[in-house]
Specification:
The structure holds 2 protein chains of 2 kinds. By secondary structure, chain A is mostly beta strands. The termini of chain A are far apart. Chain B is mainly β. In chain B, 36% of the residues are buried. Classes of the chains: A mainly beta, B mainly beta. At the A-B interface, strand 9 and strand 10 of A face strand 5 and strand 10 of B.
Chain lengths: 123, 107
């Protein structure tokens, strides 16, 4: 069974850079059918898609965050990562990594999720 | 961006009730819509993809339908495990966007 696990600091100071890593186990990150995504959810609020990446390094970003976001992939360690720069209190959220599946036979959006990690932006 | 308008924001219902949640897209999605269930402190769980296809392992009391740019999630007979928040999400074009959520509460 595929599992995703987020890791990274739970507290980040304003104006600094938030860095998270998602480790994928139980399956390979190397497939053209999969896109590896980050989604966040501020406390008590809804879901916001941040960005995704394929194992080839092909990326897509939410324009609302694009200027501050970098997503990268490490196929040798079956991981992908998120960096969000110049954070403010508005970036406080639970950050989820997720797998988006889409190929010629099936395209079913986010079928596997990590458990999520709360990142608080505060001095 | 494609806007997703979900209603109602809260729904009070009893076990055994038939429940319907609606999501309206600001443009055509060509059926590229998913529904998720989220329980407190947990990640969302995929229920329905491509507007009406049931994800593996999801009970058959959940169903999805589409009419133009309006999508519905129906729970045919609400069970105690179904009290949760539900989100729609479009994956027709970037950026992927979600509805605001519908919280299904015990009446």
């Amino acid at each position: 069974q595929l599992q995703l696990q987020e890791s990274g600091p739970g507290l980040v100071k304003p104006s600094e850079t938030l860095s998270l890593t998602c480790t994928v186990s139980g399956g390979s990150i190397r497939s053209s059918s999969y896109y590896w995504d980050w989604v966040r959810q501020p406390p008590g609020k809804g879901l916001e898609w941040i960005a995704n990446i394929q194992y080839t390094g092909s990326t897509a970003y939410n324009p609302s965050l694009k200027s501050r976001v970098t997503i990268s992939v490490d196929t040798s360690n079956n991981q992908f990562s998120l960096k969000l720069s110049s954070v403010t209190a508005a970036d406080t959220a639970v950050y989820y990594c997720a797998r988006y599946q889409c190929d010629s036979t099936k395209c079913n959006s986010f079928d596997f999720w990590g458990q999520g990690t709360l990142v608080t932006v505060s001095s | 961006d494609i806007q997703m308008t979900q209603s109602p924001s809260t729904l009070s219902a009893s076990v055994g009730d038939r429940v319907t949640i609606t999501c309206r897209a600001s443009q055509s999605l060509s059926s590229w819509l998913a529904w998720y269930q989220q329980k407190p402190g947990k990640a969302p769980n995929l229920l329905i993809f491509k507007a009406s296809s049931l994800e593996n392992g999801v009970p058959s009391r959940f169903s999805g339908a589409e009419s133009g740019t309006e999508f519905t999630l129906t729970i045919s007979s609400l069970q105690p495990d179904d009290f949760a928040t539900y989100y729609c999400q479009q994956y027709h074009s970037y950026p992927w966007t979600f509805g605001q959520g519908t919280k299904v509460e015990i009446k």
